[in-house]
């Protein structure tokens, strides 16, 4: 006999398939039981979009003449990049696809990724898989059951979408392709997520990888659709499974064969994932968890450095959000003037009562910017409270660190971060508005909301001092009410004065209104008073982890 | 600072949380250069006392002095001179253990890199792993390395070894002996009697927020009775007539009883008349002292885990 350095388990023949799938159906039942509510919610939320969007589009484009007019202007780079090529904008089915197909396909892709990870890598990371495998369970039974159940979500969602489209009396062939194309993208991402769950060694890693792959595929097809001539796709579109789904073209070409490619990708992904699972140790991934730095820099060990590092992911994702929102708002502002009907009460509320439509729209978009920045600020500063309730603040304060200095550093990250968001989002909005406004003009208009953001921060500091436990929830509740009043106050027939008494309503709606100092100064003054009171209280109260 | 000022001096400390009384007139004294054990059942107020000493909680009454200063008013200054190791360590999940050690050390004043690296080796801790992947024991090691790597005058340790295996507990014991040899002071809250008996010069036992026993460990032993077991050549019940013998349990020729320190000589002389074949005398252990103060109800609940913890 020859000596071998090959590990014994690699040389051993694979057990018969039946053995590796023992108790498969039991796993399926268990997974359904564990996930049924999530599955039902996903299916319901996604499918119900069909009748909702269909009805709204039917109202927006009641006659064929309206739809033909829309078809002439629908093919803009922004629409192509975000939702795909409007190849059938002259029919209600085609309009439905423009408005909702991409959202549903991407959402189903994300749902598949998160669910596969939740029942796969996350369970393994938490040690639950070990417990299951220790029982008389085939090695692949649980994983395959996981893929089956999540694939079931795509199939059910697709079927329901088709049936709801048929119920709206849309053409039958197109309706089946509509459901099939969305389900196909979902299935493809079951295969991709299955692979990601084998590669990453943590659930966070598996999810990040899955979302990154989805983002890359989305981007590939966006570039392909922007580059398209008229509505003829470029070959690049075939390098993305989302592109395959789009190229089934419900209510136009109604082609089924890209669906086979999506199915093949799903099957290949799952098969490869099971193969990897057969060869690796439980708890390990193909991509090992990377070691981090053994030392902290002097900056990381300062209160500001630590706050920035802990808020890094939040900060970056909100900045990306501000960039995307700014570019989007800017690029659609002019087009919206032809869509809004100024006699409609919703439209009136949307414009904030402005007579000049373009400036009214811009004023509302700038308000959105302000609300986004305030949401970031509240979330970011809530991190400080999480440090206290999580027990980490105790260790920090046991060092030579003053409470106010620590909280001040966290406040600085939230305040400066929101200012950058406002300026950046506003500037991009102006710069991408095709001359409707200037970058610097809207940057300044956006920045007018900074005192309102500071007011939210001041409120959170005040609550953190006096009511630390429910503080964060109360701050979010106040934020929510302020947002609703600023946006829809007019619809609820709230008086002008009442709306002006709320944080976002108080700020002059530039560029639709003229700038006035008084409300901005008042907001800033209240913010400072609340912040000082909260800080002082925090400096003298008990530190209580939960 | 003059050498006769104690590292910690607490008297009549009171603290309420709403309707519950956490501390009800607690006293605690740690002399400079000594290791002080701080014992009490769960919920007796050990951690509350430590949090007050760290300036995290504000006392409702009584006085607390830490290194000659006011732990609340002078917190930032005093913390340059002390290191704290919590019992339940929570770390930032997406930072590495090494980063956490540096952050905690630098906030106190600075990092002694040599000492830090030596401790990492002694505690066998990988500093490049994210804290998310650490077990309870490894999280505890992070806090221990950060605390022990400092040259602080005073170490405040709140059940610092609760997640460590026996080998690592031994490393910890060595480290504390070194700290003591350098003339630094330690407040050690612990449930591990063997550890406290090995390391501590003085012991303070608290219950329901009050100090019930405090003093040098050897002196405390004097205050309590020695347990004696004997085997005689006749029925042991005859011992009932010997003056100074208490709590006698006789079973055939075997007997177990307790004797106060003052009566020990007389009892031994009287025993000689019964020609004992075997005699074992054991001084009161810390565990005996402790269980005595835990009282009836707590004795049943507390005895089993306490014994387990004490066994090495």
TrEMBL record, chain A:
Presence of keyword Phosphoprotein:
no
Q: What residue ranges are annotated as transmembrane?
A: 6-24, 36-54, 144-167, 173-196, 208-224, 256-274, 315-337, 357-378, 406-429, 449-467, 474-495, 515-535
Please give the superkingdom of this protein's source. Answer: Bacteria
Record has Transport as a keyword: no
- What's in the keyword line of the UniProt record? Membrane, Transmembrane, Transmembrane helix
In its UniProt entry, what is this protein called?
ABC transporter permease
Q: What is the lineage of its organism?
A: Bacteria, Bacillati, Actinomycetota, Actinomycetes, Micrococcales
UniProtKB/TrEMBL annotation, chain B:
Assigned keywords, A-Z: Antibiotic resistance, ATP-binding, Nucleotide-binding, Transport
Please give the InterPro entries that the UniProt record associates with this protein: AAA+_ATPase, ABC_transporter-like_ATP-bd, ABC_transporter-like_CS, ABC_transporter_ATP-binding, P-loop_NTPase
Membrane topology category:
Peripheral membrane protein
What are the residue boundaries of the ABC transporter domain, all occurrences included? 8-233
Q: Which GO terms describe its cellular component?
A: plasma membrane
Q: Name one GO molecular function term.
A: ATP hydrolysis activity
Is Transport among this UniProt entry's keywords? yes
Q: Which Gene3D superfamilies does the protein's record reference?
A: P-loop containing nucleotide triphosphate hydrolases (3.40.50.300)
Give any single GO term for biological process: response to antibiotic
Q: Membrane-crossing residues?
A: none
Keyword Nucleotide-binding in record: yes
Q: Which PROSITE patterns match?
A: ABC_TRANSPORTER_1, ABC_TRANSPORTER_2
- Write out the annotated subcellular location: Cell membrane
What's the family? Belongs to the ABC transporter superfamily.
Write down what this protein is called: ABC transporter ATP-binding protein
Organism of provenance = Arthrobacter livingstonensis
């Amino acid at each position: 006999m020859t000596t071998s350095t090959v590990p014994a388990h690699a040389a051993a023949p694979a057990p018969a398939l039946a053995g590796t799938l023992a108790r498969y159906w039991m796993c399926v039942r268990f997974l359904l039981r564990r996930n049924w509510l999530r599955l039902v919610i996903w299916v319901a939320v996604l499918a119900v979009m069909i009748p909702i969007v269909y009805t709204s589009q039917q109202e927006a484009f009641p006659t064929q003449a309206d739809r033909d007019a829309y078809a002439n202007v629908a093919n803009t780079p922004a629409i192509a990049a975000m939702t795909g090529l409007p190849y059938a904008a002259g029919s209600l089915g085609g309009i439905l696809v423009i408005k909702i197909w991409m959202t549903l396909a991407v959402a189903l892709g994300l749902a598949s990724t998160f669910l596969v990870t939740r029942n796969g890598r996350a369970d393994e990371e938490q040690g639950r898989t070990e417990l299951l495998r220790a029982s008389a369970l085939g090695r692949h039974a649980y994983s395959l059951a996981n893929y089956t159940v999540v694939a079931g979500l795509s199939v059910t969602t697709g079927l329901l979408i088709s049936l709801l489209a048929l119920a709206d009396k849309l053409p039958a062939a197109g309706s089946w392709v509509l459901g099939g194309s969305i389900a196909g993208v979902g299935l493809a991402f079951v295969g991709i997520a299955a692979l990601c769950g084998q590669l990453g060694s943590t659930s966070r890693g598996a999810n990040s990888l899955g979302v990154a792959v989805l983002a890359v595929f989305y981007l590939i097809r966006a570039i392909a659709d922007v580059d398209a001539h008229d509505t003829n796709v470029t070959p690049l579109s075939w390098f993305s499974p989302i592109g395959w789904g789009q190229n089934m073209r419900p209510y136009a070409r109604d082609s089924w064969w890209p669906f086979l490619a999506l199915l093949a990708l799903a099957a290949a992904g799952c098969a490869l994932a099971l193969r990897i699972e057969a060869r690796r140790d439980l708890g390990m991934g193909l991509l090992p968890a990377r070691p981090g730095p053994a030392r902290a820099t002097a900056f990381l060990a300062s209160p500001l450095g630590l706050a920035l590092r802990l808020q890094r992911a939040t900060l970056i994702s909100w900045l990306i959000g501000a960039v995307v929102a700014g570019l989007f708002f800017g690029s659609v502002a002019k087009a919206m003037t032809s869509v809004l009907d100024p006699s409609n009460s919703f439209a009136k509320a949307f414009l904030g009562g402005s007579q000049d439509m373009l400036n009214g729209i811009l004023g509302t978009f700038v308000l959105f910017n302000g609300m986004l920045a305030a949401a970031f600020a509240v979330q970011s500063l809530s991190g400080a409270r999480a440090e206290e309730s999580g027990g980490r603040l105790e260790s920090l304060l046991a060092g030579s660190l003053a409470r106010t200095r620590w909280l001040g550093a966290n406040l600085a990250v939230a305040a400066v971060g929101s200012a950058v968001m406002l300026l950046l989002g506003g500037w991009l909005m102006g710069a991408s508005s095709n001359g409707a406004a200037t970058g610097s003009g809207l940057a300044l208009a956006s920045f007018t909301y900074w005192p309102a953001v500071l007011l939210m921060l001041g409120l959170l500091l005040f609550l953190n001092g006096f009511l630390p436990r429910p503080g964060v929830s109360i701050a979010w509740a106040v934020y929510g009410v302020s947002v609703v009043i600023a946006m829809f106050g007019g619809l609820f027939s709230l008086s002008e004065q009442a709306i002006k008494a709320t944080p976002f309503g108080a700020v002059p709606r530039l560029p639709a209104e003229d700038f006035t100092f008084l409300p901005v100064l008042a907001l800033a003054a209240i913010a400072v008073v609340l912040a000082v009171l909260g800080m002082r209280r925090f400096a003298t109260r008990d530190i209580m982890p939960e | 600072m003059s050498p006769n000022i104690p590292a910690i001096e607490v008297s009549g400390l009171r603290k309420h949380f709403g309707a519950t009384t956490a501390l009800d007139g607690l006293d605690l004294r740690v002399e400079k250069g000594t290791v002080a054990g701080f014992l009490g059942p769960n919920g007796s107020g050990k951690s509350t006392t430590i949090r007050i000493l760290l300036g995290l909680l504000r006392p409702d009454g009584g006085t607390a002095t830490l290194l000659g200063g006011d732990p609340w008013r002078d917190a930032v200054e005093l913390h340059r001179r002390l290191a704290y190791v919590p019992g339940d360590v929570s770390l930032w999940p997406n930072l590495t253990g090494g980063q956490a050690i540096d952050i905690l050390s630098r906030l106190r004043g600075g990092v002694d890199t040599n000492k830090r690296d030596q401790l990492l080796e002694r505690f066998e801790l990988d500093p490049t792993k994210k804290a998310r992947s650490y077990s309870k024991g490894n999280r505890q090691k992070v806090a221990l390395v950060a605390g022990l790597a400092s040259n602080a005058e005073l170490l405040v340790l709140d059940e610092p070894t609760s997640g460590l295996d026996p080998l690592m507990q031994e490393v910890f014991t060595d480290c504390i002996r070194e700290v003591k040899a350098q003339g630094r002071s330690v407040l050690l809250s612990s449930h591990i009697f063997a550890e406290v008996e090995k390391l501590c010069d003085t012991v303070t036992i608290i219950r329901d927020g009050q100090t019930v026993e405090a003093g040098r460990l050897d002196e405390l032993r004097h205050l309590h009775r020695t347990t004696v077991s004997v085997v005689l050549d006749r029925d042991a019940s005859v011992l009932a007539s010997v003056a100074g013998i208490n709590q006698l349990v006789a079973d055939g020729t075997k007997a177990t009883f307790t004797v106060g320190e003052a009566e020990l000589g007389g009892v031994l002389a009287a025993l000689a008349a019964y020609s004992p074949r075997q005699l074992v005398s054991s001084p009161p252990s810390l565990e005996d002292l402790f269980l005595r103060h835990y009282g009836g109800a707590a004795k049943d609940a507390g005895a089993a885990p306490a014994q387990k913890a004490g066994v090495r």
